[in-house]
Give the backbone structure.
Amino acid sequence: QVHLVESGGGLAQPGGSLTLSCVASGFTFSSYPMSWARRAPGKGLEWVSGILADGKPSDTYYLDSVRGRFTISRDNAKNTLYLQMNNLIPEDTAVYYCAKGLHGSDRGRGTQVTVSS
C-alpha cells in the first residue's frame, strides 16, 4: 500500500524559503519517478516539479512559474523526496502534494504553504 507523508509547510514571507519533505513507503521508492503538485484556493491541481528515479538534476522538470526558484531532489536511501522553495511569492500559496510517478494518482494528504506578509 502506497503511503506518502508530506511535511515542511507553513507560513513564509514573500522572498522567503521553505523546504518540503515527503517520506514514502509501501513501494520501491528508488524505482519510481516522483513529483510535486499543488492546489491553490479555488483552483485545480497544478503539477509543479518531477524527478526521475535516479535523481539526477538533469532528469528533472519544473513548471515555468517556479523554474529557478524551486529545486526538487530525492534521497533514495531515505525514501524521501524534497522540494526546496526559494524566493516565494504569494501565488505559491497552496496545498502541496507529493505523488508517486510523474502526474501519479497516488498522493499524500498534502502540506499547506502560505506566503504572506
Summary: The chain has a mean pLDDT of 96. Residues 50 and 61 are 5 Å apart (CA to CA).
